[in-house]
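Re: your question about Condensin complex subunit 1

S., sorry for the slow reply, the queue was backed up all week. Below is exactly what I fed in.
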Amino acid sequence: MSSDERCHARNALKMLMFLVTQQLELFEADLGSGKPIPGTKKGRKKKASSAACAEMIRLRWDDEVSGLVEQVKQLCLLQLHMLWEPPVIEEDFVNLIGDLCFRVLDNPSFIRIQEVREPVTSILTRLVRSYNYSRTGAIKLSQLLVMCEQPQPNQVVHLVNGFLAGQQNDMRCFVSAFLQELASYSSADLEKNTAGTGALCTFLVEFTQLHPDIAEQSLPHFKERLACDPYSLRNCVLSMISSILSKRYLSNSELDSKQRAKVDRYLDTLEEHVHDLNGFVRSRCLQIWLQIVEAKSLPYERMGRLVELIAGPQGSLLDTSAMARKHSMKILAAMLECNPAVRVPTDQLNADFEREVKILQELEASQDPELVQKELTWRRRIIPKVLQLLSQQVRSAAAASATDAAEAPAAARAADGDDSEGDAAAEDEEEEGIGEEETAEAVARRIYDNFQRNRVSRAIRLFALAHDAFTDNPIFSTRIEEVPNSDSQPASASQAEAQSQKLRVQAWTDRLKDIYMGEAYAANSRQSEACAQIAKQQTLIACLRQSLQFVEQVKSAIPFVVAMLGSSTQSDILEAVAFLLAGHQQGMAECAPGFKKMLGLVWSKEAAIKQAVVSAYEKMYTEVFVDQDAGIGPDEAEKLRVSAIVGSLSQLICSATLGDLLSLEKLVCEFVRSGVIDKPVVQGAWDKFARRAGNSSQDRRAAVILLGMMAAEEPGIVRANTQLLVSEGLCADCTDLQLVQYTCVALQRMAATPAKAKSAANAAAGSGVAAAPESCRMPTESDLFQRLLDIIVSSASGESRFWMPMMEQAVSVIYTLADSPDQLAASLIRRMARLLLDCSRRKSVTAAAAAATAEPADAIQLDDADAEAADAAVEMSDDGPEAPQPSLTLASSMLAKFVALVGHVALKVLVHLEVAVLAELKRRTALKEANKGGETGRASAVKASKRKSVQPASAEDELGLEGASADDQEAEQIRRLLDDVLLYDERHLLSHLAPLIVHVCEQPASFQSEQLQAAASLALAKLMLVSGKFCEQHLGLLFTLAEKSQSEVIRANLIVALGDLAKRFPNLVEPWTASLYGRLRDSSARVRLNALNTLSHLILNDMIKVKGQISEMTTCICDSQSRIAHLAKLFFSELSNKGNALYNVLPDIINRLSDAETHEDHFKEICDFLFPLIRGDRHCEQLVEKLCIRLRSAEQPRQWRDFAYCLNLMTYSERMLRKLLEHICTLADKLHETEVYNCFKAIAANAGRAAPQGPAAAAAAAAAGGGPGDLAGCLAELNAKIEEFHLKQVDNEEAMERAEKAAEKAAKKAHHRRKRSSAAASGANAAAAAAAAPAADGAGPSGAARGGSKRRAAAAARRRTAVFSDSESE
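Result:
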């Protein structure tokens, strides 16, 4: 082409590209602004058609753009530079094409379309490769990622992948420049542009995962961001380090020294940010560590340091961030699985460590220390470099020809990148090669010197040269003797070559070691083996030391993890459960305390927590591994599984406390419900219970407890084997009272639980049929009850402490399963009374027992013939303190058991009447009404219609209360029987035995046995539960015992009984509420704990009104017993969720605590816990007003300080500050107190720091009706008034002090003057009396003297007045 033609084509090309670019920008601007697109119709009537047309144009525009960029791509593939003279395209034209591409990419809809993105990628690649667009393109691409309104980081990743898709490496430079451009953005700009920062971080993380090698080259530019904000960029850099480690290094087992140094630097960076200032960074860093540990890529020597960072004194387990704590516990759990040392007991590890140390000392004593040190240096520092360089050299030599073998050292030199600093300089200074006259020994010496100077690569190159120069010398001979073996011949030539290279490397390594260690070492094979053994022993000891350190650090973290089980954060609890499960699976006995605490979480209301606990215990105790390779058949494997499950659950039951058994029962019910405990396991438990031979009493008890727990969910388990329970658990020769007790518990599970009975009753009521409940009651003559009575009576004379719990469960079985339980109870009391008569020698006790032996006519009733004998039971001897005491301890023990039996029978009578009898009465009434209604339904309907037409219906008929009144009548009948008949009608046995119990409680001096007093007091409480009338009569006695009893056990028991009485008879106990609160000040921690639990239960269930007396419970927050303090905090946390209860009483609590002179530190601790529980702006605002009013009326400085401290605990909003500002004038007289003044200054300072800043805060304030400066003005006014009143009051106080001092000084002066004047007057009178002159003309001077003294007194008075006036002015 001619010059003119090229010019014409060039201009046409420029104009065409300019027009295309402008058209694209204009069309995109119209589409983005929503303006009418040219070519569409205007007008309101054409709105719908215009929208449809615009949408069609948009769809067509996508196709047009894809075709456009494809045409531009084809254009760029031409030799466009030939149109310019000289053949260099103008920079403006290149930028025009680039702007076109980035304008297309700026549209989110275009960058997602592959047909658009790929041509644009090709165009930019062409511009970068051919037209020097690298710098400009990198800037534009970074702006596309960071400055775009709608960033698309994922699409930018696809775009960059397109740049790197080709085989050429020139685009790697462009990508590196792009990454450097991203790293150049300032932190301030990134902190403002949150969307762009998020896009930048997302891109860097995804790009590093795909191209870790390129990202690592630019990582130094980004590592500077680890020391500045925003925190999201720090997270991004840490994620990049994580990807680089996982992709390039940690997955590679053959790392050279430089690579190991890089890994150490990266891991050091991660360790530094475990304790970053930002919680999100700490959490992300710990998450990276978790990924490393789970991938089993953590170096062994790093485990101890990581555990120290997590479980140390300032470790991440104590972090304020919940996510950081979560990842910390995950890391510990993962490390338990990675380190087998935790499976070995610590004692055994210590023993192994000490044994290996002794072995090492013995080996070192028999060897040369210099040789041992050389061996260690060879193994730890030299051999890794030697193996790496030799492998590279052997591969290079294998690739080269035989004639070019001399080039192998050069290849090794080119591959060398692992020498220490200074090696390259030494190579430049010294000449490589072997002299013509140099001997093999001299070359070996040079190789040794290079090893000593850590010049490993130079030593290897010299050895390679010597190997070729001294082929026959044994020092450098590396002949390989291959032993043919047909079984191990390589399958291919490549495998044969690999085997040959491996043997060659090993031969060279042996020769190099001989040179380094010396001739003596090489000649003495025994010595070389000993040195190698020492090196191995030292490595083993180092490994054992690290294992011991790791195990000890992990065990020190267990208490912190166990404490997490009580956290209010769900993730803490879930991760703590997972860690304890991992510890159990690794056999760590230190996790046992956590298992017991974890067991209580089975009652959690959070479904996730409950499921995690159930799943953990299922894995610990029900999952059994059976080795299938051991040749065990299916039947035998099933037996092993059942035996293991029953055995593990039985062992758990044996080690459980009474509280743990309740939680364990809930857990077993979950197992039964989910099918984990199936029929074979149930049968295994029955077999263990029934087999006496081979099973101890403890095993049988555990089996029957387990069966009872299963029956709580499935009663049929016990119903199907009742006879087995009776024959084995209640046998005639049974002496194990605990076995009898738990057998009775299992028997009670035959009956439906109250919840299931209620649901069945509701279902029956819903169906309209009053069906009889499923009954499990047995005849009174059943062998079961006779055995129970025999066991109770026969074992009563013993001294077993399990008799009373066994008796209570046996009586419960009688009232649960017997048809006529009253008859059995009466028979039992008679038999116990006869036994008591045999053991007692006291007349009153004998009379009471004789009364009990009377034969009742029906149930627990007495006939007329035995009334006199029953009266004798209450005629207790009243001989006072001189009354003779029982001569036998057995009599007191028997009497205690007798009164305990009477009390429990009374309680069971109450339950029987109010539950079983009342339910049966209601069922019969409903059945009778249903039958009656069916027979006369039609006739009654006709009569009812006639009655309605004559007279209006009654109120009960209209409201449907006829059935309710019938129910009330039955309940009233039961209540009347309990209140007025059971304990007062002489025909009932309990009415004659109750005075005996009252007498024992009233006469502690006569009945001094603590066991007897405890049993009698509990029996009295149970009798009071039966009758409200009896309760009212003896309530004072019970409270007296609860307050003044010398026995801690009695006080602790009675506080629980009083809680039951408060629930049953709240109106009777309400006047005694102060006495209940008083038990919180008991000297016994056990009594305080029971009192706190009882009051918490009553208050949270609305049995007691929340009043100012609750301040007594706040003192438990500072109790010396940690459990009491924890329960008190838990109570107030629950109370704060019950409406306004805590808010209403908080001012009274503060007032009472301040008046009671509570220690100020305790007062602050209590308030620090209570005030954050008050939520809601309105409550906080009103609380500020109440506290200000109480502060105004307070008189003592201690109260001023307390109320000011409480005001300082609150977080102030603008409304609260205004409320405080309204009352500040009334508090002016208190601000001279230093602590009060400091509290008010702190309020203002904290409110200023917490005030929202920026335009968003101003907009929020304007929306709320206030200007942006209202809060600042309020704070300024508050500060000014605080300072003004403080200074004024301080001046007033100082003036008052000066006035008082001046008054004291003036009073002293006046006193001295009066003394002087009185002395002068007495002297004058004496002189006048002694004068001999007549007094006729002496009246004038004496009168003048008297006038002078009056004038002096008046002057003194004037001076005192002046002093007081001056002091007042001051």
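The radius of gyration is 49 Å. The mean pLDDT is 75.

Happy to talk it through on Thursday.
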